[in-house]
């Protein structure tokens, strides 16, 4: 997103905007196969509705036999409601009990992270950062308790922010917490937050 994109994404009169939130967990359980699971939710501030879907993807390197399935959901009273029928009871429970990373994340200690690379472009505005996290970090403990993270390796936090993400200003934020052991492996949690006009 550039400064021009931000300026062009103007809000029409009366438009309160739409938040899109996203969290996924991606893992290479088998060589050449990526399993990716998570949820997307669109919160329309005009209609006060929150609708989206839970997705289960199995992606092969050659893209043959890749599989993708979406299950419609909505949120009411801060609770996920499954709209599609799901036969697999464990999957059904994962969907209904799903929490976005932003619902339990706590970055009050962000300033204490060491060995960080930070880049700021005040003209956009845009912010990029990369930090080495500790296994003692509460966010890391939360993720280990919620997901099947088999490595003891401390993760890397990668952060990208465009815009202000407040008021009537469009914005985009992406967080990736990467537990991958090596370059060709994948074990990460991605969290996205996007604010855009709801009316086109």
UniProtKB/TrEMBL annotation:
It comes from the Bacteria. This is Tandem lipoprotein. InterPro entries: Csa, Csa_sf. The keyword Ribosomal protein does not apply. Pfam families: DUF576. Belongs to the staphylococcal tandem lipoprotein family. It comes from Staphylococcus aureus. Keywords: Lipoprotein. Transmembrane segments: none annotated. NCBIfam families: SA_tandem_lipo (TIGR01742).
